[in-house]
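In this notebook, the sequence line spells out the residues, with the fold written below as integer tokens. This is how one looks.
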Amino acid sequence: MKKIIISLVMMILFGGMFMFAAPEAVEAQSYYTKRVVRNGRVRYVRVRKPSYYRRHRNRINMAAGTAGGAILGGLIGGRKGALIGAGAGLGGSALYTYKFNPKTRKYYKVRRYRR
């Protein structure tokens, strides 16, 4: 019975992943951002929207670590093991996400020249 429930949960999780793997509409993949050119004028340039993973990287890594820890803990130690495994997975994924591989943002300096 336990194997059937675990198999069912795994199939539901893999089925839910297809929702994120589906391609987005073309209109939703770009937006306009404001760029200031050398003489101080403002131009609106069309840029590509960052991917879903790039926008929500920290949340996805934390959720994946927690789920992985809960699954392993549940297989090893039952219900109490799942709670302990979820906590350990959350701690490990937080350590990885925020300390070992932090998100880096690129900042561009905009210079305005006055006449």
The first strand starts at residue 30 and ends at 36.
